Amino acid sequence: MRTSELVTIERFIIDQERLHGGATGELSTLLYYIALAGKVIAREVRAAGLLGILGSAGRQNVQGEEQQKLDVIANDAIKDAVGRSGRIAVMVSEEDEGPIPPPRDAQVGKYVLLYDPVDGSSNIDVNVSIGTIFSIHRRVTRDGPGELKDCLQPGRKQVAAGYVLYGPSTILVYAAGHGVQAFTLEPNIGEFLLSRSDIRVPRTGRYYSINEGNSGSWSNGYRKAVEAFKGAAGKDGVKTARYIGSLVADFHRNLLHGGVFLYPADAKSPRGKLRLLYEAAPLAFIAEEAGGAASDGKDAILDIVPTELHQRTPLVIGSKDDVEFVDRAVSGA
Ligand code: FDP
């Protein structure tokens, strides 16, 4: 392929902006900085297995800098790259309790970024795929650094959402109201190149993904739905189980091949385990944009009005028919 035929994420973002006149370019710059942070994190993830050999958290590296654990490194990479982009009013990270204003000497922008720097952290030590998830809203306050109410907006109001999956390859997937696109990092030239455009999730899929270790404390509805996926009601609709335990990786597989990921409320997590603002809502935005669905077992995730920054929610996400099937089972219909 000729170099001129390669579509880098920067080129794609600029082309999209030209297609949709009226854009100021601010969102494009923000996405560019998120992609940049994704590359920095990908580099650290590749070396993560060496942290224990070359110096673990609490030690210093050869430059005399403190070597940190991956989630701190990833959180700082995003805060630093995006916080100084001039496009941000406020940020929310899984790793920080309160809203994060832009640095004092940085320009304040009109967007709100909510993110999970390292999703699936229990998989870091065992070299299994992990990810970064992000959600972007437009601020609702007028000026100055953003406030809590800028952060507590329903998912339906997102202007863009995406994730970076650090697997055998590093893949950035995002949606900004014009379909879902995937870009794969070409490590030798350091560019994210368009690898799939306008991703559509099949209406029903072959996979179901759930932590069955928690089945003892699921409600009857979830139990029935999972039994049906295993074929209790006959051969029709039988699914195969796949559970990585990294939400991004489980979601990505089901996005491409179809299927449903479930994390219901259970005895350990009575309100569900996953976080609404920077896990469930951005993935729900992508799922709907790709023709899929996402619910909390009853209502669409995108319609939930958040009341807390780190609010949890049950999550059923993926192929539309499969999500609706689970919702019906949960409601007892
Ligand atoms: P983790 O706790 O490893 O960070 O975000 C939380 C999350 O991972 C998701 O990525 C994953 O889908 C889920 O929790 C796994 O939870 P269980 O280990 O309870 O199955």
Secondary-structure map with pairings?
Elements: H1 9-19, H2 26-46, H3 48-54, H4 70-83, E1 88-93, E2 111-119, E3 130-138, H5 148-151, E4 160-166, E5 170-175, E6 180-186, E7 191-196, E8 207-209, H6 220-229, E9 240-241, H7 247-257, E10 259-263, E11 274-275, H8 276-289, E12 293-295, E13 312-313, E14 315-318, H9 320-331
Parallel strand pairs: 1-2, 8-9, 8-10
Antiparallel strand pairs: 2-3, 3-4, 4-5, 5-6, 6-7, 10-14, 11-13, 12-14
Helix pairs in contact: 1-2, 2-4, 6-9
The site of 2,6-di-O-phosphono-beta-D-fructofuranose has 11 residues, from loops.
Task: Tell how many strands the DSSP assignment holds.
Answer: 14
Strand order of the largest sheet: 1-2-3-4-5-6-7
Secondary-structure element order, as H and E?
HHHHEEEHEEEEEHEHEEHEEEH
Task: Give average pLDDT, whole number.
Answer: 91
Bound molecules: 2,6-di-O-phosphono-beta-D-fructofuranose
Given the C-alpha coordinates, what overall shape results? globular
CA-based gyration radius: 20 Å
Helix coverage percent: 25-40%
Report strand %: 15-25%
Number of helices: 9
The largest pleated sheet is described as:
7 strands, mixed
Low-pLDDT stretches: none
- SS-derived structural category: alpha+beta
